[in-house]
Design a protein that fits this description.
This protein has 391 residues and is of the alpha/beta class. It is built from 14 helices and 11 strands. Bound molecules: zinc ion. Zinc ion (ZN) binds next to loops.
C-alpha cells in the first residue's frame, strides 16, 4: 500500500517536471543560444538614418525557424522576428532550416555519428512526431511554420517563391508599405534523408535555396568541419544537377573546399555562400580561402558576410564593416551581401532591428552610397531576380 503511494507521488513529480521542461525549456534554450552583446543605444547620424530608410535591405541567412517563437510578436529572445525586421527596414529575410547538429559542435572536426541535438529540440519544442526521426520532415515543419505567418498576417509578411513575387513585393515596399518578405533555404542537404526525390518535395514546399552541408560529412560529400574533407560524391553531383534543373539556388557555406571546387565545375548557375567571413580578413577554419572565394565571385556568385566571431573574428559593427570592405576589395562590389547568421546559436553585436548601425559604420568608413546600397541588399535582390524561378 505504502509502495503504491510512493510510486504515485513519484509519477506526479515526473509529470510535473516534464510539463515544466516543455513549458519553459524552449524559451530558455533560445535565450541561452542566441544573444546580443550588451550595448548602449547606437548613435546614428541623421544622414545614415535617411540613407538606411531608402535602402532595399536583404539578409541571406537566419536560423530563426529552429526556435519556438511567435514571430508576429516582438520578443526578447534572439535576433529576429517580423516587428524587428520591419524596424530594421529589412525587405527580404532568407530563413534557413537547421535539421541536424552534432553534439560537441566545433569548426575543426565533427563526426557524422555524433548525438543529434536537433532531435532533442524537436522533442522539446513538440514538433510533429515524424520529425523526430526524419530530417526532411524537420525541414517541412519549419517551412510550414514560416509560411503560416503569411496566412495569419498577410499585411505584415509575404512568402516569396519566384522572381515575380519578389518584384511585386519590392514594388509594394517602394510605395511605402513596410511588409517583410521571407524565403526558405536549408542548412545542409542531409535534409534530403538520402533521397534525391526530396529535392522536389522541399522545392514544392517552398524551399528556394539549399545548402549542401552543415557541420559534418553527409551523403553529398565532405563538410568544411567534417572528418573526410572529401569532394562531391556521385550522389552529391546528381543533387547539384537536380537543384540546377529546378532552379534551386545552391549555398556552399560549410562545404569542404574540395566540394566547392567540384560544384563550380558542374553547376550551370552561380553559387551563394550565405553566411561566412573571408579567410584573409579572419583566419579561422570557418572561412574558406580567398582564391576560392574569388572563383565563386568570378562565376557570378554572391557572398554573405556574417556578424559573429567565427566569421569576422571580432563581433563589432566596425569590424563587420571592415570584413565587408575586405570582401568588396577582394571580390568586387557586385558580389557581397549580408549573411547575418542571426539566431544560429550566435552572439551578435546587434539584432535585426538595429541594422542602421551598419549603414552608419559604412558611411564612417568612407563607403560610396552605391557600395552601401549594393551590399545592404541590391546585390541580393539582383541575384534573386536572376536566379529564382520566373513565376
Ligand atoms: Zn551555418
Amino acid at each position: 500500500m505504502k509502495l503504491k503511494r510512493t510510486i504515485r507521488y513519484a509519477l506526479i513529480v515526473i509529470i510535473l517536471l516534464v510539463i515544466l521542461v516543455l513549458t519553459f525549456g524552449p524559451g530558455y534554450l533560445d535565450k541561452s543560444q542566441n544573444k546580443v552583446l550588451p550595448h548602449s543605444p547606437f548613435n546614428i547620424s541623421q544622414q545614415a538614418i535617411e540613407l538606411h530608410q531608402s535602402l532595399q535591405i536583404g539578409d541571406l541567412h537566419a536560423d530563426t525557424s529552429l526556435w519556438k517563437r511567435d514571430l508576429l510578436e516582438k520578443i526578447e529572445n534572439g535576433h529576429v522576428d517580423i516587428p524587428r525586421l520591419s524596424e530594421g527596414n529589412v525587405a527580404v529575410q532568407m530563413f534557413t532550416a537547421v535539421t541536424k547538429v552534432p553534439a560537441g559542435i566545433n569548426y575543426e572536426k565533427n563526426s557524422t555519428e555524433a548525438r543529434d541535438l536537433v532531435q532533442l529540440i524537436a522533442i522539446l519544442e513538440r514538433w510533429p512526431v515524424n520529425s523526430w526521426s526524419s530530417l526532411t520532415q524537420r525541414a517541412l515543419h519549419q517551412v510550414s511554420n514560416i509560411r503560416s505567418l503569411e496566412k495569419e498576417a498577410p499585411e505584415k509578411f509575404k512568402f516569396i517563391l519566384s522572381a515575380k513575387d519578389l518584384a511585386t513585393h519590392l514594388g509594394k515596399r517602394a510605395t511605402g508599405s513596410s511588409i517583410v518578405g521571407g524565403m526558405m533555404g536549408t542548412e545542409g542537404s542531409h535534409a534530403l534523408d538520402g533521397d534525391l526525390e526530396n529535392i522536389k518535395v522541399l522545392f514544392d514546399a517552398g524551399y528556394r535555396m539549399m545548402s549542401l552541408h552543415h557541420f559534418f560529412d553527409n551523403k553529398l560529400g565532405g563538410s568544411l568541419h567534417g572528418e573526410s574533407t572529401a569532394g562531391l560524391t556521385e550522389f552529391g553531383k546528381q543533387a547539384v544537377l537536380k537543384m540546377n534543373q529546378l532552379e534551386v539556388m545552391i549555398d556552399v557555406s560549410h562545404s569542404s573546399e574540395a566540394v566547392v571546387e567540384d560544384v563550380l565545375a558542374i553547376t550551370s548557375r552561380p553559387l551563394i555562400v550565405s553566411h561566412t567571413g573571408i579567410r584573409g580578413h579572419c583566419d579561422l577554419k570557418r572561412n574558406i580561402h580567398d582564391p576560392l572565394m574569388q572563383k565563386i565571385a568570378k562565376s557570378g556568385g554572391l557572398i554573405g558576410v556574417g556578424y559573429w566571431e567565427g566569421a569576422v573574428c571580432e563581433a563589432t559593427p566596425k569590424n563587420i564593416v571592415a570584413a565587408i570592405r575586405y570582401a568588396i576589395d577582394l571580390l568586387g562590389e557586385d558580389h557581397v551581401a549580408l549573411g547575418s547568421d542571426f539566431d544560429g546559436a550566435t552572439t551578435t553585436p546587434f539584432d535585426t532591428s538595429e541594422l542602421a548601425i551598419l549603414t552608419e559604420e559604412m558611411l564612417v568608413a568612407g563607403f560610396t552610397e552605391i557600395e552601401i546600397r549594393k551590399v545592404m541588399g541590391a546585390n541580393m535582390m539582383r541575384y534573386f531576380a536572376e536566379n529564382l524561378p520566373a513565376g
